[in-house]
Write a structure and sequence with these properties.
By secondary structure, this protein is α+β, with helices and mostly antiparallel strands. It has one domain. It has helices at 12-16, 39-49, 67-77, and strands at residues 2-9, 32-33, 51-57, 60-65, 93-100. The protein has a 5-stranded antiparallel sheet. Helix 2 packs across helix 3.
Length: 101
């Protein structure tokens, strides 16, 4: 499976209409790539680790998350999240899984 996983701050208007999001590329303020994490591995842990799952198109899912949840993802999956030290614990973050054809 070819996939991409992005994280970032959730756009304010998307946060208000979370369950209505349908464009996986238009949820986050900036699409920052999560490195060294495969799609199946991510999907396996995502439902246990993150909250408010929404299916945004046929093969893409978005989850609300906190800074601590992203840190736990890095710790458990040994993936890389650039700039993780710069995240603000008071902001709303999201993580978006996009299955690509």
């Amino acid at each position: 499976m070819m996939s991409s996983i992005f994280y970032g701050e959730i756009k304010e208007d998307k946060l208000k209409t979370w369950s209505e999001n349908r464009n996986p590329y238009d949820i986050l303020v900036e699409n920052n790539r999560v490195e060294r994490l495969g799609g199946w591995d991510f999907l396996f842990i995502a439902k246990d680790l993150f909250t408010d799952e929404v299916q945004v198109d046929w093969g893409s899912f978005a989850y609300k998350c906190t800074c601590k949840q992203l840190q736990k993802l890095v710790s458990e999956m040994k993936c890389e999240i650039p700039k993780i030290q710069e995240l603000d614990p008071d902001k709303a973050y999201g993580i978006v899984f996009i299955e690509e054809s």
